[in-house]
Design goal:
This protein is α+β, with helices and mostly antiparallel strands. Helices cover 26% and strands 24% of the residues. Helix 8 packs across helix 11 and helix 11 runs antiparallel to helix 12.
Protein backbone atom coordinates (compact mmCIF):
# COMPACT_ATOMS: atom_id res chain seq x y z
CA UNK A 1 0.00 0.00 0.00
CA UNK A 2 1.43 3.38 -1.01
CA UNK A 3 1.44 6.59 1.02
CA UNK A 4 -1.86 8.42 0.91
CA UNK A 5 -2.72 12.09 1.03
CA UNK A 6 -5.66 12.87 3.33
CA UNK A 7 -7.12 16.24 4.24
CA UNK A 8 -6.61 17.28 7.84
CA UNK A 9 -8.99 19.24 10.05
CA UNK A 10 -7.18 22.47 9.21
CA UNK A 11 -7.79 21.87 5.50
CA UNK A 12 -4.22 21.00 4.60
CA UNK A 13 -3.18 17.69 3.08
CA UNK A 14 -1.17 15.28 5.18
CA UNK A 15 0.48 11.95 4.46
CA UNK A 16 -0.64 8.67 5.94
CA UNK A 17 2.14 6.17 5.42
CA UNK A 18 1.86 2.45 4.91
CA UNK A 19 2.34 1.65 8.58
CA UNK A 20 -0.48 3.94 9.67
CA UNK A 21 -2.84 2.62 7.00
CA UNK A 22 -2.00 -0.97 7.97
CA UNK A 23 -2.97 -0.08 11.53
CA UNK A 24 -6.39 1.08 10.29
CA UNK A 25 -6.86 -2.12 8.29
CA UNK A 26 -6.04 -4.15 11.37
CA UNK A 27 -8.46 -2.34 13.65
CA UNK A 28 -11.67 -2.47 11.59
CA UNK A 29 -13.52 -5.54 10.40
CA UNK A 30 -15.06 -3.79 7.40
CA UNK A 31 -13.38 -2.74 4.18
CA UNK A 32 -10.91 0.11 3.94
CA UNK A 33 -11.09 1.48 0.39
CA UNK A 34 -8.74 4.03 -1.17
CA UNK A 35 -8.37 5.55 -4.66
CA UNK A 36 -7.13 2.94 -7.10
CA UNK A 37 -8.96 0.06 -5.46
CA UNK A 38 -11.20 -1.80 -7.95
CA UNK A 39 -14.48 -0.80 -6.29
CA UNK A 40 -13.50 2.73 -5.21
CA UNK A 41 -15.45 4.59 -7.90
CA UNK A 42 -18.58 2.53 -7.35
CA UNK A 43 -18.48 2.85 -3.56
CA UNK A 44 -17.89 6.62 -3.52
CA UNK A 45 -20.98 7.41 -5.61
CA UNK A 46 -24.12 8.77 -3.99
CA UNK A 47 -27.71 9.31 -5.15
CA UNK A 48 -27.27 12.83 -6.55
CA UNK A 49 -24.98 12.55 -9.59
CA UNK A 50 -24.22 16.29 -9.40
CA UNK A 51 -22.01 15.51 -6.40
CA UNK A 52 -18.80 14.02 -7.81
CA UNK A 53 -16.15 14.05 -5.09
CA UNK A 54 -13.23 11.82 -4.17
CA UNK A 55 -12.66 10.96 -0.51
CA UNK A 56 -9.16 9.79 0.32
CA UNK A 57 -10.22 6.89 2.56
CA UNK A 58 -13.54 5.07 2.84
CA UNK A 59 -14.10 2.88 5.91
CA UNK A 60 -17.11 0.61 5.30
CA UNK A 61 -18.21 -0.18 8.84
CA UNK A 62 -19.83 -3.48 9.76
CA UNK A 63 -20.86 -2.52 13.29
CA UNK A 64 -20.49 -0.10 16.16
CA UNK A 65 -16.96 -1.25 16.94
CA UNK A 66 -15.82 -0.22 13.46
CA UNK A 67 -17.43 3.19 13.96
CA UNK A 68 -15.61 3.58 17.28
CA UNK A 69 -12.27 2.61 15.78
CA UNK A 70 -12.77 4.83 12.73
CA UNK A 71 -13.59 7.89 14.81
CA UNK A 72 -10.70 7.25 17.16
CA UNK A 73 -8.33 6.87 14.20
CA UNK A 74 -9.60 10.05 12.53
CA UNK A 75 -9.29 12.01 15.78
CA UNK A 76 -5.81 10.66 16.48
CA UNK A 77 -4.59 11.81 13.06
CA UNK A 78 -6.77 14.96 12.96
CA UNK A 79 -8.48 13.98 9.70
CA UNK A 80 -11.35 15.86 8.10
CA UNK A 81 -14.17 13.33 8.47
CA UNK A 82 -17.57 12.83 6.84
CA UNK A 83 -20.33 10.35 7.60
CA UNK A 84 -22.54 8.52 5.10
CA UNK A 85 -25.68 6.52 5.76
CA UNK A 86 -27.42 5.53 2.53
CA UNK A 87 -26.01 8.50 0.57
CA UNK A 88 -29.36 10.01 -0.42
CA UNK A 89 -28.91 13.57 0.88
CA UNK A 90 -29.52 16.19 -1.81
CA UNK A 91 -26.55 18.35 -0.77
CA UNK A 92 -24.12 15.42 -0.84
CA UNK A 93 -22.51 16.46 2.45
CA UNK A 94 -21.21 12.93 3.01
CA UNK A 95 -18.63 13.33 0.25
CA UNK A 96 -15.66 15.69 0.40
CA UNK A 97 -12.49 15.66 -1.69
CA UNK A 98 -9.59 14.18 0.24
CA UNK A 99 -11.63 13.49 3.38
CA UNK A 100 -11.89 10.42 5.60
CA UNK A 101 -15.33 8.89 4.98
CA UNK A 102 -17.02 6.70 7.59
CA UNK A 103 -19.54 4.70 5.54
CA UNK A 104 -22.44 3.10 7.41
CA UNK A 105 -24.30 1.75 4.37
CA UNK A 106 -23.52 -1.90 5.17
CA UNK A 107 -25.10 -1.61 8.64
CA UNK A 108 -28.69 -2.43 7.59
CA UNK A 109 -30.14 -4.61 10.33
CA UNK A 110 -33.80 -4.05 11.32
CA UNK A 111 -35.12 -5.94 14.36
CA UNK A 112 -38.84 -5.81 15.17
CA UNK A 113 -40.54 -6.64 18.46
CA UNK A 114 -44.19 -7.00 17.38
CA UNK A 115 -45.48 -7.37 20.95
CA UNK A 116 -43.89 -4.14 22.17
CA UNK A 117 -44.32 -2.50 18.74
CA UNK A 118 -40.72 -1.37 18.63
CA UNK A 119 -38.12 -1.55 15.86
CA UNK A 120 -34.36 -1.25 16.37
CA UNK A 121 -32.70 -0.08 13.16
CA UNK A 122 -29.07 0.33 12.10
CA UNK A 123 -28.04 3.56 10.31
CA UNK A 124 -27.37 2.09 6.87
CA UNK A 125 -30.90 0.76 6.50
CA UNK A 126 -33.13 2.27 3.85
CA UNK A 127 -36.79 3.03 4.29
CA UNK A 128 -37.47 -0.03 2.17
CA UNK A 129 -35.52 -2.18 4.62
CA UNK A 130 -37.57 -0.79 7.51
CA UNK A 131 -40.92 -1.24 5.75
CA UNK A 132 -40.06 -4.79 4.71
CA UNK A 133 -39.42 -5.89 8.28
CA UNK A 134 -42.17 -3.95 10.05
CA UNK A 135 -44.90 -4.80 7.54
CA UNK A 136 -44.36 -8.49 8.18
CA UNK A 137 -46.32 -7.74 11.37
CA UNK A 138 -48.67 -5.11 9.94
CA UNK A 139 -46.68 -2.34 11.61
CA UNK A 140 -45.00 0.84 10.40
CA UNK A 141 -43.10 3.93 11.51
CA UNK A 142 -43.77 7.27 9.77
CA UNK A 143 -40.96 7.70 7.25
CA UNK A 144 -40.47 9.33 3.84
CA UNK A 145 -41.83 8.56 0.38
CA UNK A 146 -38.81 7.09 -1.44
CA UNK A 147 -37.81 3.61 -0.29
CA UNK A 148 -34.12 4.07 -1.17
CA UNK A 149 -33.76 6.98 1.27
CA UNK A 150 -31.63 6.18 4.30
CA UNK A 151 -33.30 5.97 7.70
CA UNK A 152 -30.43 7.79 9.42
CA UNK A 153 -30.43 10.98 7.38
CA UNK A 154 -34.22 11.08 7.23
CA UNK A 155 -34.62 10.68 10.98
CA UNK A 156 -31.83 13.03 12.01
CA UNK A 157 -33.44 15.75 9.90
CA UNK A 158 -36.97 15.18 11.24
CA UNK A 159 -38.61 12.84 8.73
CA UNK A 160 -42.10 13.05 7.23
CA UNK A 161 -44.25 11.19 4.73
CA UNK A 162 -47.63 9.54 4.20
CA UNK A 163 -48.21 8.64 7.87
CA UNK A 164 -47.06 11.88 9.49
CA UNK A 165 -50.46 13.59 9.72
CA UNK A 166 -51.69 10.56 11.64
CA UNK A 167 -48.68 9.64 13.75
CA UNK A 168 -46.30 12.61 13.64
CA UNK A 169 -42.78 13.14 12.32
CA UNK A 170 -40.27 10.31 12.31
CA UNK A 171 -38.50 11.95 15.27
CA UNK A 172 -41.79 12.12 17.17
CA UNK A 173 -41.71 8.31 17.10
CA UNK A 174 -38.06 7.95 18.09
CA UNK A 175 -37.67 6.29 21.50
CA UNK A 176 -33.91 6.03 21.86
CA UNK A 177 -30.62 6.14 19.98
CA UNK A 178 -27.08 4.92 20.46
CA UNK A 179 -24.44 7.50 19.54
CA UNK A 180 -20.67 7.45 19.14
CA UNK A 181 -19.46 10.91 20.08
CA UNK A 182 -16.47 12.88 18.82
CA UNK A 183 -14.61 11.65 21.92
CA UNK A 184 -15.14 8.08 20.75
CA UNK A 185 -17.63 7.27 23.50
CA UNK A 186 -20.74 5.15 22.91
CA UNK A 187 -23.81 6.61 24.62
CA UNK A 188 -27.40 5.40 24.86
CA UNK A 189 -29.68 8.41 24.72
CA UNK A 190 -33.39 8.85 25.38
CA UNK A 191 -35.56 11.29 27.30
CA UNK A 192 -34.00 10.13 30.58
CA UNK A 193 -30.38 9.52 29.56
CA UNK A 194 -28.29 12.24 27.92
CA UNK A 195 -31.63 13.90 27.24
CA UNK A 196 -29.97 16.99 25.74
CA UNK A 197 -28.16 14.93 23.13
CA UNK A 198 -31.33 12.95 22.38
CA UNK A 199 -33.30 16.21 21.97
CA UNK A 200 -30.71 17.63 19.57
CA UNK A 201 -30.50 14.44 17.52
CA UNK A 202 -34.27 14.54 16.93
CA UNK A 203 -33.97 16.82 13.92
CA UNK A 204 -30.54 18.42 14.43
CA UNK A 205 -28.81 16.35 11.76
CA UNK A 206 -25.50 14.56 12.10
CA UNK A 207 -23.91 17.37 14.08
CA UNK A 208 -23.49 15.67 17.43
CA UNK A 209 -22.14 12.19 16.78
CA UNK A 210 -22.63 9.05 14.72
CA UNK A 211 -25.91 7.31 15.51
CA UNK A 212 -25.36 3.56 15.29
CA UNK A 213 -28.85 2.48 16.36
CA UNK A 214 -32.36 3.95 16.25
CA UNK A 215 -35.27 2.65 18.33
CA UNK A 216 -38.70 3.51 16.94
CA UNK A 217 -42.27 3.22 18.16
CA UNK A 218 -44.44 1.35 15.63
CA UNK A 219 -48.10 1.69 14.66
CA UNK A 220 -50.63 -0.67 13.14
CA UNK A 221 -50.78 0.10 9.40
CA UNK A 222 -51.76 -2.08 6.46
CA UNK A 223 -50.82 -4.48 5.10
CA UNK A 224 -53.21 -2.85 2.61
CA UNK A 225 -54.15 0.82 2.59
CA UNK A 226 -56.61 2.82 0.52
CA UNK A 227 -54.32 4.92 -1.61
CA UNK A 228 -53.28 6.01 -5.08
CA UNK A 229 -53.18 8.93 -7.50
CA UNK A 230 -55.86 10.87 -9.32
CA UNK A 231 -54.64 12.70 -12.42
CA UNK A 232 -55.96 15.98 -13.82
CA UNK A 233 -54.91 17.78 -17.01
CA UNK A 234 -52.68 20.73 -16.28
CA UNK A 235 -55.26 23.09 -17.77
CA UNK A 236 -57.32 22.45 -14.61
CA UNK A 237 -54.40 23.03 -12.21
CA UNK A 238 -55.54 26.46 -11.10
CA UNK A 239 -59.08 25.43 -10.19
CA UNK A 240 -58.10 22.04 -8.75
CA UNK A 241 -55.45 23.55 -6.47
CA UNK A 242 -58.04 25.96 -5.07
CA UNK A 243 -60.50 23.17 -4.32
CA UNK A 244 -57.64 20.98 -3.05
CA UNK A 245 -56.78 23.73 -0.56
CA UNK A 246 -60.37 23.76 0.70
CA UNK A 247 -60.48 19.98 0.88
CA UNK A 248 -57.27 19.82 2.95
CA UNK A 249 -58.66 22.26 5.49
CA UNK A 250 -61.29 19.73 6.55
CA UNK A 251 -59.95 16.27 5.74
CA UNK A 252 -59.39 13.71 8.52
CA UNK A 253 -55.90 13.21 9.96
CA UNK A 254 -55.85 9.62 8.71
CA UNK A 255 -55.79 11.04 5.17
CA UNK A 256 -52.79 12.67 3.51
CA UNK A 257 -53.01 14.17 0.00
CA UNK A 258 -50.00 15.55 -1.83
CA UNK A 259 -50.12 17.58 -5.04
CA UNK A 260 -47.55 17.04 -7.80
CA UNK A 261 -47.05 19.01 -11.01
CA UNK A 262 -44.99 17.15 -13.60
CA UNK A 263 -45.11 15.44 -16.98
CA UNK A 264 -47.20 12.30 -16.75
CA UNK A 265 -45.10 9.17 -16.25
CA UNK A 266 -46.10 6.00 -18.13
CA UNK A 267 -48.45 4.77 -15.43
CA UNK A 268 -50.38 1.65 -16.46
CA UNK A 269 -53.80 3.24 -15.85
CA UNK A 270 -53.00 6.25 -18.08
CA UNK A 271 -53.72 6.16 -21.79
CA UNK A 272 -50.55 6.28 -23.92
CA UNK A 273 -51.47 9.67 -25.39
CA UNK A 274 -51.35 11.15 -21.87
CA UNK A 275 -47.78 9.97 -21.22
CA UNK A 276 -45.38 12.91 -21.24
CA UNK A 277 -48.09 15.58 -21.08
CA UNK A 278 -48.16 18.12 -18.24
CA UNK A 279 -50.51 17.06 -15.44
CA UNK A 280 -51.50 17.76 -11.86
CA UNK A 281 -51.52 14.61 -9.75
CA UNK A 282 -53.11 14.33 -6.33
CA UNK A 283 -51.60 11.39 -4.47
CA UNK A 284 -53.42 10.15 -1.37
CA UNK A 285 -53.11 7.60 1.40
CA UNK A 286 -55.64 6.80 4.12
CA UNK A 287 -54.02 5.05 7.06
CA UNK A 288 -57.16 3.70 8.75
CA UNK A 289 -60.15 1.50 7.99
CA UNK A 290 -60.51 0.68 4.30
CA UNK A 291 -64.19 1.57 4.00
CA UNK A 292 -63.66 4.84 5.85
CA UNK A 293 -60.79 5.50 3.45
CA UNK A 294 -63.06 5.10 0.44
CA UNK A 295 -65.45 7.65 1.90
CA UNK A 296 -62.66 10.08 2.78
CA UNK A 297 -61.18 9.89 -0.73
CA UNK A 298 -64.51 10.18 -2.55
CA UNK A 299 -64.66 14.02 -2.58
CA UNK A 300 -61.35 14.18 -4.46
CA UNK A 301 -63.20 12.98 -7.55
CA UNK A 302 -65.23 16.18 -7.46
CA UNK A 303 -62.25 18.56 -7.55
CA UNK A 304 -62.10 18.51 -11.35
CA UNK A 305 -62.52 16.34 -14.41
CA UNK A 306 -59.90 13.66 -13.92
CA UNK A 307 -58.00 11.92 -16.72
CA UNK A 308 -57.53 8.82 -14.59
CA UNK A 309 -58.13 7.54 -11.09
CA UNK A 310 -55.82 5.06 -9.36
CA UNK A 311 -57.49 5.05 -5.93
CA UNK A 312 -57.69 1.47 -4.70
CA UNK A 313 -56.45 -0.82 -1.95
CA UNK A 314 -52.69 -1.15 -2.35
CA UNK A 315 -50.06 -2.96 -0.28
CA UNK A 316 -48.48 -0.36 1.98
CA UNK A 317 -44.99 -1.57 1.06
CA UNK A 318 -45.75 -1.13 -2.63
CA UNK A 319 -47.21 2.32 -2.16
CA UNK A 320 -44.11 3.36 -0.22
CA UNK A 321 -42.14 2.53 -3.37
CA UNK A 322 -44.49 4.26 -5.81
CA UNK A 323 -42.15 7.21 -6.46
CA UNK A 324 -38.95 5.14 -6.66
CA UNK A 325 -38.95 4.94 -10.50
CA UNK A 326 -39.03 8.76 -10.66
CA UNK A 327 -36.16 9.19 -8.18
CA UNK A 328 -33.60 6.63 -9.26
CA UNK A 329 -29.88 7.32 -8.61
CA UNK A 330 -27.62 8.62 -11.35
CA UNK A 331 -29.43 11.82 -12.39
CA UNK A 332 -28.43 15.40 -11.58
CA UNK A 333 -30.68 16.87 -8.90
CA UNK A 334 -31.17 20.35 -7.46
CA UNK A 335 -33.87 21.18 -4.92
CA UNK A 336 -35.45 24.33 -3.55
CA UNK A 337 -37.93 24.30 -0.71
CA UNK A 338 -40.31 26.43 1.35
CA UNK A 339 -42.66 25.91 4.28
CA UNK A 340 -46.18 27.38 4.11
CA UNK A 341 -48.98 27.84 6.61
CA UNK A 342 -51.51 28.05 3.76
CA UNK A 343 -51.87 27.78 -0.01
CA UNK A 344 -52.76 31.41 -0.67
CA UNK A 345 -54.20 32.62 -3.97
CA UNK A 346 -50.90 34.29 -4.83
CA UNK A 347 -48.93 31.12 -4.13
CA UNK A 348 -51.26 29.05 -6.32
CA UNK A 349 -50.72 31.55 -9.14
CA UNK A 350 -46.95 31.00 -8.90
CA UNK A 351 -47.29 27.22 -8.70
CA UNK A 352 -49.30 27.20 -11.92
CA UNK A 353 -47.06 29.70 -13.71
CA UNK A 354 -43.81 27.90 -12.96
CA UNK A 355 -45.46 24.51 -13.32
CA UNK A 356 -46.23 25.47 -16.90
CA UNK A 357 -42.52 25.85 -17.69
CA UNK A 358 -40.76 22.95 -15.98
CA UNK A 359 -37.21 22.89 -17.36
CA UNK A 360 -37.02 19.11 -18.01
CA UNK A 361 -39.39 16.18 -18.31
CA UNK A 362 -38.05 14.73 -15.04
CA UNK A 363 -38.59 17.89 -13.00
CA UNK A 364 -41.58 18.25 -10.68
CA UNK A 365 -43.14 20.41 -8.00
CA UNK A 366 -44.20 18.61 -4.83
CA UNK A 367 -46.67 20.07 -2.34
CA UNK A 368 -46.74 17.88 0.77
CA UNK A 369 -49.76 18.20 3.04
CA UNK A 370 -48.69 18.46 6.68
CA UNK A 371 -50.65 19.50 9.79
CA UNK A 372 -52.49 16.95 11.90
CA UNK A 373 -50.29 15.15 14.42
CA UNK A 374 -47.16 16.94 13.19
CA UNK A 375 -48.50 20.23 14.57
CA UNK A 376 -49.65 18.96 17.95
CA UNK A 377 -46.04 18.79 19.16
CA UNK A 378 -44.48 21.84 20.80
CA UNK A 379 -41.87 23.60 18.63
CA UNK A 380 -39.21 23.06 21.28
CA UNK A 381 -40.14 19.46 22.15
CA UNK A 382 -37.30 18.31 19.90
CA UNK A 383 -34.90 19.98 17.50
CA UNK A 384 -37.38 19.96 14.60
CA UNK A 385 -39.26 23.25 15.15
CA UNK A 386 -41.75 23.67 12.28
CA UNK A 387 -45.01 22.89 14.08
CA UNK A 388 -47.22 25.45 12.33
CA UNK A 389 -46.62 24.20 8.79
CA UNK A 390 -49.57 23.00 6.71
CA UNK A 391 -47.72 22.47 3.41
CA UNK A 392 -44.09 21.90 2.39
CA UNK A 393 -43.03 22.65 -1.16
CA UNK A 394 -40.08 20.79 -2.60
CA UNK A 395 -38.99 21.64 -6.12
CA UNK A 396 -37.35 18.57 -7.67
CA UNK A 397 -35.28 19.89 -10.55
CA UNK A 398 -33.83 16.82 -12.23
CA UNK A 399 -31.88 16.25 -15.45
CA UNK A 400 -29.20 14.05 -17.01
CA UNK A 401 -26.68 16.25 -18.84
CA UNK A 402 -24.39 18.85 -17.29
CA UNK A 403 -25.13 21.10 -20.27
CA UNK A 404 -28.59 21.66 -18.74
CA UNK A 405 -27.24 22.89 -15.39
CA UNK A 406 -27.68 26.59 -16.10
CA UNK A 407 -31.26 26.29 -17.31
CA UNK A 408 -32.33 24.12 -14.39
CA UNK A 409 -30.61 26.23 -11.73
CA UNK A 410 -32.14 29.42 -13.13
CA UNK A 411 -35.69 28.05 -13.21
CA UNK A 412 -35.48 26.63 -9.67
CA UNK A 413 -33.99 29.78 -8.19
CA UNK A 414 -36.51 32.05 -9.90
CA UNK A 415 -39.37 29.86 -8.71
CA UNK A 416 -37.97 29.86 -5.18
CA UNK A 417 -37.77 33.67 -5.20
CA UNK A 418 -41.28 34.04 -6.61
CA UNK A 419 -42.79 31.88 -3.84
CA UNK A 420 -40.68 33.26 -0.99
CA UNK A 421 -43.18 36.05 -0.07
CA UNK A 422 -45.76 33.39 0.84
CA UNK A 423 -43.38 31.24 2.93
CA UNK A 424 -42.64 31.11 6.66
CA UNK A 425 -38.88 31.52 6.20
CA UNK A 426 -38.29 28.07 7.68
CA UNK A 427 -37.09 25.04 5.77
CA UNK A 428 -36.85 21.30 6.26
CA UNK A 429 -33.13 20.70 6.74
CA UNK A 430 -33.02 17.61 4.50
CA UNK A 431 -34.22 19.73 1.56
CA UNK A 432 -31.38 22.28 1.69
CA UNK A 433 -29.24 22.07 -1.45
CA UNK A 434 -25.46 22.31 -1.60
CA UNK A 435 -25.26 26.03 -2.41
CA UNK A 436 -27.65 27.25 0.31
CA UNK A 437 -26.88 28.56 3.80
CA UNK A 438 -30.23 28.12 5.54
CA UNK A 439 -29.27 26.21 8.67
CA UNK A 440 -30.58 28.83 11.08
CA UNK A 441 -33.83 28.91 9.07
CA UNK A 442 -34.05 25.15 9.52
CA UNK A 443 -33.95 25.41 13.32
CA UNK A 444 -35.43 28.81 14.12
CA UNK A 445 -35.70 29.47 17.85
CA UNK A 446 -34.09 26.08 18.62
CA UNK A 447 -30.80 27.05 17.00
CA UNK A 448 -29.21 28.61 20.10
CA UNK A 449 -29.97 25.55 22.21
CA UNK A 450 -28.49 23.35 19.49
CA UNK A 451 -25.24 25.33 19.56
CA UNK A 452 -25.06 24.67 23.32
CA UNK A 453 -25.47 20.91 22.81
CA UNK A 454 -22.89 21.05 20.03
CA UNK A 455 -20.42 22.85 22.30
CA UNK A 456 -20.90 20.18 24.97
CA UNK A 457 -20.55 17.07 22.81
CA UNK A 458 -18.45 18.30 19.87
CA UNK A 459 -16.67 21.51 20.96
CA UNK A 460 -14.04 21.22 18.20
CA UNK A 461 -16.68 20.77 15.49
CA UNK A 462 -15.20 17.44 14.43
CA UNK A 463 -18.54 16.58 12.79
CA UNK A 464 -18.61 19.55 10.44
CA UNK A 465 -19.27 18.09 6.99
CA UNK A 466 -23.06 18.39 7.28
CA UNK A 467 -25.63 21.16 7.50
CA UNK A 468 -23.39 22.46 10.20
CA UNK A 469 -24.33 23.84 13.58
CA UNK A 470 -21.26 25.58 14.92
CA UNK A 471 -20.39 25.24 18.63
CA UNK A 472 -19.64 28.97 18.59
CA UNK A 473 -22.65 31.27 18.98
Amino acid sequence: MAELQVRSLDGEMKILNDEVLSELHGRVRGQVIVPGDPDYNEVRQIWNAMIDRHPAVIVRCTGTADVLYAIQFAKQHQLLTSIRGAGHNIAGKSLYDGAFLIDLSNMRSVRVDPQERVAVVEPGATLGDVDHETQAYGLAVPVGINSTTGIAGLTLGGGFGWLSRTYGMTVDNLLAIEVVTAEGKRLRCDKNHHADLFWASCGGGGNFGVVTSFEFKLHAVGPEVMSGPIVFPFEQAHSVLHTYRDFCANCPEELTVWAVIRDAPPLPFLKPDVHGTRVLILVALYSGDMEAGKQALAPLHQLGEAIADGFAPHPFVGFQQAFDPLLTPGARNYWKSHNFTELSDGLIEQLVEYGSKLPTSQSEIFIAQMGGATNRVAPDANAYPHRDVEFIMNVHTRWDNASQDGTCFEWAREFYAATKPFATGGVYVNFISEDEDRVQGAYGANYERLTEVKAKYDPDNFFRLNQNISPEK
